[in-house]
Amino acid sequence: MSAAKVFVARLANTAVFDPGGDRVGKFRDVIVTYRSEGAPSVNGILVEPQGFRRGMFVPMRHVLAIGSSQLIVDWDEVDDRPFEQRGEEVRVFTDILDHSGTLREKQQVRGTIEDLSIEEDDAGDWSVGQLYVRLPRTTKTLFGKAPTRYIEWEQIELDLNPEVDTPATQFLTAHSEMEPSDLADALLELPVSRRLEVVEEMEDERLADVLEEMHENDQLVIIEHFDQERAADVLDQMQPDDAADLIGRLDEAKSHALLELMEPEEAEDVRMLLEFEPNTAGGLMTTDPIIVSADTSVAEALVLIRRGEIAPALATAVFVTASPYEPPTGRYLGLVHFQRLLRYPPHERVGTILDKRVEPVHTSSPDIDVVRALARYDLVVLPVVDDDDCLVGVITVDDVLDHILPDDWRAKAAADDRSEPGTFTAAIDLPPLTQSVATGDSASQSGAQQNRGGVHG
Q: Which residue numbers delimit the CBS domain (predicted)?
């Protein structure tokens, strides 16, 4: 080992390499086991492999080196099955850091564990060493940080079943670089009580991105946990179609209250989406496309596409309309794909390079027509217009996938993650909607999901 003692909070998101220097993943957690006497023993570390959602367990005997900026593991010896936490195992970032306890001294001082070290003994065994503990303030001043102290494991009695909420600082730090879909999976692995503690400390925008990757039943648990003001703030940050799907699952009184608390522009979009049937183009669309006038230059259009808050699917095209330029717009004129913009000089007007081959769909068009149009023309995004030929929204390919995937697709994907390499334990059975695309039979619309917009994942 390159280090016989290391504080684990500093390892959050550290790159993990094999002995040959190839990067194999990121460090996520330390797995320990409590003992009847003495500090917990360290079983190994949890590594998130590149390209996989689930972490893999690496026993400490296969951890070859721990440095300040990298870990080296004998990757060829690691069991490639996804990690499943057993009853006696404890995750440091999830179950120990940020938790409080009482110091075993006369004053009965309370402290919060912000970090801990793991140490290797002469026999090569690893265990928890010192704890870095934040203590209560000793003065009434609001300036400066509260005092801290290094203590041994035996000097504190942890609250294993705390009556008050436990901060989630270290958990969020360890998962700060995760994609929203992966963080959604990590949150759903936590007990509900701990999950709610974590989401309370997440920023609204980050939480909104994560909620969009969850099934609506899981979304409801979180949204209904918040007070109405916080819930409305989070809904403001969600894509309008996702917010509409979620609000549509609430009772009428709660829906009305949340819409009143949301930003007026966001609430207006959601109200419009709630008017459409779930299995129609209007029920699938989002109201946040990039809309420009015909006089907009290619350079100006590319600036709009480059904005970081634009979803990748929505950044594949700009939509050209007459005034006004917010849905519902003036008359729809056409669209220009991103690749086409790159072929023309910056001063060219987008109105002169419209792609008019892509026909918009009407808000009342059935979902089967939407799927056919996207598949037939290899589209990523499809415009939606109303009776007056005004643009009211667009449908992206991920909107359609959310709509047609079955409720249990996440569970089946997780089952495949747990299977042996090269085998598949569960297939995703698509509903009759997609079968009708292949057979040309549009009569199977009855198999579409009843909830507006389908399942989000």
A: 285-352, 354-412
As a dihedral over the C-alpha atoms of residue 172, residue 244, residue 392, residue 366, rounded to 10 degrees, the angle is: 120
Token digits of residue 43: 């079983």
How is residue 54 written in tokens?
């689930």
Assign 174 to helix, strand or coil: helix
The lowest-confidence range among 29-38, 176-185, 244-253, 378-387 is 176-185
Residues 39-73, buried b or exposed e (16+ Cβ, 10 A)?
bbebbbbbbbbeeebbbbbbbbebbeebeeebbbb
DSSP for residue 11 = G
Please state, in angstroms and rounded to a whole number, the distance separating the CA atoms of residues 335 and 318. Answer: 6
411 CB-contact burial (10 Å; exposed 0-12 / middle 13-18 / buried 19+): exposed
pLDDT given for residue 445 in this prediction: 38
Structure tokens at 249: 């699952």
Tell me the angle at which helices 240-247 and 216-225 cross, rounded to the nearest 10 degrees: 80
Quote the tokens at residue 341. Answer: 């913009």
CATH homologous superfamily for the domain 178-275: MgtE N-terminal domain-like (1.25.60.10)
DSSP secondary structure letter of residue 150:
E
Separation of alpha carbons 163 and 165, rounded Å? 7
| Per-residue pLDDT band at 296 (split at 50, 70, 90) | very high
- Domain chopping of the chain, boundaries: 5-91, 95-158, 178-275, 276-457
Q: Which residue has the tokens 């003994």?
A: 121
What is the dotted CATH code of the domain comprising 276-457?
Answer: 3.10.580.10
- CA triplet 408, 446, 404: central angle to 5 degrees? 35
Phi, psi of 107 (to 5 degrees): -75, -10
55 to each of 65, 108, 173, 412, 419, how far by Cα in Å? 19, 38, 16, 17, 14
Query: 15-17 and 23-33 as β-strands: parallel, antiparallel, unpaired?
Result: antiparallel
5-91 and 276-457 share one CATH topology? no
- Beta bridge mates, 101: 111, 158
Please say whether the beta carbons of 153 and 131 come within 8 A. yes
Domain covering 5-91: architecture: Roll (2.30)
Separation of alpha carbons 370 and 442, rounded Å: 12
Contact of 109 with 95, CB cutoff 8 Å? no
Q: Is the pLDDT of residue 351 over 50?
A: yes
Do 351 and 298 form a contact (C-beta atoms < 8 A)? no
Distances (CA, A) of 97 to 71, 92, 117, 161, 425: 21, 6, 11, 14, 36
